[in-house]
Design goal:
Residues 139-216 are annotated as: Disordered. Belongs to the TSR2 family. There is one protein chain. The model is unreliable at 146-187, 192-203 and 212-216 (pLDDT under 50). Strands 1-2 form a two-stranded antiparallel ribbon. The protein is mostly helical. The protein has 9 helices and 2 strands; from the N terminus they run H-H-H-H-H-E-H-H-H-H-E. The longest helix has 23 residues, at 72-94. Helix 1 runs antiparallel to helix 6 (102-118) and helix 3 (42-54) runs antiparallel to helix 5. The chain has a domain at 8-139.
Length: 216
């Protein structure tokens, strides 16, 4: 009997796991969670965030056969929608404006992973899992307390840090914060976007320039 390949459910589950891992590896989001920019439930918000991104692909899963090629139009639309939602949720839920171009890179990676998983090709998601496993338990906050991203000389700045005293206070608060929400010890999971009530509004570790905290 001919091999029918992986089931649609396996392909979709693999993709959704890849989305969650992609967000766990996104440094601006990790920094926001570690710094409690989204409140004390930042890790839970990140799980919900993954569900909100995966939701964008529901119609594409339903309307495209596993073996079909993704048209450039579909891929471009998904890329634009994914980048827009990444930026919107970072702003709305984590009080953070990401303008370093990394949202586009993450969105592009997610769309490529979707294209691969839809065809039953899991090499990309397997490589992503290896990166995620290697990053578990590591914090990005320490590097940014010095005002620099890893391997980058450009600072991440906040608009509401008006003077050096404010900066020192912020550093002290981050030093005293717990680490329960900052590690990646738990397997990434999805929380369906509809499970969180929210108004309708809307790495790779190189190239970070500025992530500014939104003014209230």
């Amino acid at each position: 009997m001919a091999n029918q390949g992986p089931s649609r459910q396996l392909c979709q589950d693999t993709f959704e796991s890849a989305v969650a891992m992609s967000l766990q590896l996104w440094q601006p989001l990790s920094f926001a969670v570690e710094s409690n920019l989204g409140g004390g439930d930042g890790a839970d918000k990140r799980d919900w965030f993954a569900g909100a991104i995966a939701e964008l692909f529901e119609d594409a899963w339903a309307n495209a056969p596993l073996s079909s090629s993704t048209t450039s139009t579909v891929a471009e639309d998904l890329l634009m929608d994914t980048e827009a939602r990444l930026l919107q949720i970072m702003d709305d839920e984590f009080d953070t404006v990401v303008d370093d171009g990394s949202a586009y890179d993450v969105a592009n990676d997610i769309v490529m992973l979707w294209t691969q998983c839809r065809r039953g090709q899991f090499a990309g998601s397997d490589a992503l899992r290896q990166r995620w496993e290697a990053s578990r338990g590591k914090s990005v906050r320490g590097a940014f307390q010095a005002g620099k991203a890893p391997d980058d000389d450009t600072a991440w700045q906040t608009d509401d840090d008006d003077d050096e005293d404010d900066d020192e206070d912020d550093d002290d608060e981050m030093d005293n914060a717990g680490n329960d929400d900052t590690t990646m010890d738990d397997a990434p999971s999805l929380v369906p976007a509809r499970a969180r009530t929210k108004p309708e509004p809307e790495v790779d570790e190189d190239g970070f320039t500025t992530v500014a905290r939104k003014k209230r």
